[in-house]
Amino acid sequence: MNFFVLSLIKAGLVAFVLLTTLAYLQWIERKVLAHIQLRIGPSRVGPHGLLQPLADVIKLLTKEGFIPTNVNTFFYLLAPVLAVTIALTAISVIPFGPAITIAGVETYMQLTDLKIGILFVLALSSVGVYGVALAGWASNSKYALLGGLRSSAQMISYELPMAMAIVAPLLMLNTLSLREMVAMQDGFYLGFIPRWSIFQMPLPQVVSFVLFLIAAFAETNRVPFDLPEAENELVAGFHTEYSSMSFAAFFMAEYANMITVTAIATLLFLGGWHPLFPYAYGSWLIPVLLFAAGGLIALSHGMNPARPFDRITLPITGVVFIGIGLAFAVPFLQPYILPLFWFAAKVGILLFIFIWIRGTLPRFRYDQLMSFAWKFMFPVALINLLVTALAVALTN
Amino acid sequence: MDAILFLLFAFVAVVCAISLVVQTHPISSALSLIGVMGSLAVLYLLLGAEFIAAAQLIVYAGAIMVLFIFVIMVLNAGAEQRSSKSRLVKWLGIPLFAVFIGLISFIIQSQLPQSKGVTFGSFTTATGLEIGRALFTTYLLPFEVTSILILVAILGAVVLARKEI
Fold first, then answer.
1. What mean pLDDT comes out for the span B33-62?
2. What chain B residue is nearest to A120 in terms of C-alpha separation?
3. Which of A40, A77, A162, A189 could cross-link to A215 by cystine, CB 3.0-4.6 Å?
4. Chain B interface residues (partner A, CB cutoff 8 A)
5. Regarding beta strands A105-109 and A97-102, do their DSSP bridges make them parallel or antiparallel, or are they unpaired?
6. Mean pLDDT of A377-395
7. d(C-alpha A261, C-alpha A38), whole Å
8. How many Cβ atoms from other residues are within 10 Å of residue A267's Cβ?
9. Quick one: pLDDT at residue B99?
10. Distance between CA A192 and CA A189 in Å, rounded?
């Protein structure tokens, strides 16, 4: 098929899935946080608040885009565009699955495979600071300026340990292309231990993985490192003066960055779309059982409903879930959806950890944040890199 | 396609460079410089040097310029004031500029016949592997000397900034 047509179709698909995920990630976050704090969360719009993201989008779209006085108009308008564009671009190099053949056309489940894929993502994440910094500066407000300053200082500081944590597994995987990285993690030790970077010989990269996750929290401005938008000190930080779609752009950028870093963590440390244990031992049964169990729980709750409308919605959900679960058992569909399941499951678990930590940990103080980066993260990352390099050099 | 992209980004680079000098506000100047860095990265990419393009973005646009912007924001520097014009600049500025342009064009003119032209996508030896090998074999001494120089600069900055240690 024509390269351009194929790319357009894939780009459309990825954009649709990504934007839907962005919207529903926020719903999931609100729900999970609510349940952690013994609340119900969004429950008014649609069953279980499922249409809440749609309502939010409509609200933000129809709200007046307000430009405060005495702002630097050009940079004020540029900042959100910059933030969201850079954040969404990073998804273009992320592979979701292996090569597949649909109707005689062979293609990769990835928009484009750069030889320098991981560097491209790093470059985008380092350029992404400008959106936040400019927003803080152009708003002509002290809260926004302080938020922008904090954010840029924090992102510069944590970029270093993050890059170091990425380099260590790269030494073992020996490639910069994200797709080849996953290919290097294929296979199993002793027939059942996956060769993911966090298990891979000569040196399992557990330390790098933890360092990367911590740095990722800081890079995406999430709790416990969300000082740029510390509500009790800075109103809303760098986006205090923004409303309507420009506010939504920052919001989308934050969630898109979360998806990107979790996807990178999955590809780099958790073996991408490779299953936890071999197919021969029945790893394909996991999605079947998971979805079937979810469906059965929904069905059993539908039998004795807590709310009147649960009598209709829960059985429908249950049947859909069981249907999805059975689809994983069809041999014809397996090569398409099994890799997607494993990739989505790993990314989803990491995203859940992000939300979980937001519900658990309090915020750092700013000097703690900085000394943590420079006096703990950076030396540990350096030592980890040296030890990994030594291990790789000795085994080669 | 390559030629169009080259013309486009070379044009962007030149426009950003001019804007860098002409702008009076430091933030605008710094952002113009980022524009120059970004278009240079695209030009490297057109030559086929992917690694260098990414390094250009990460190091210059991502690290150094963020520090610039950060310092400008911390100092809250406003737009530049036009100073009372120096007489030296007024009378010697344009002739000196003409001499400078003449010199540059003379050097280019004399070097041009000997140098080979580059073609798009031909510069493929600049992979991470090759660059690492070159840095740690052929250019080991300059590389280490540079890193010591940077270390000295960092120490100097720390000493200057914190008088009581």
1. 86
2. B54
3. A162
4. 27, 31, 34, 50-51, 53-55, 57-58, 61-63, 66-67, 69-70, 73-74, 76, 127-128
5. antiparallel
6. 89
7. 29
8. 28
9. 93
10. 6
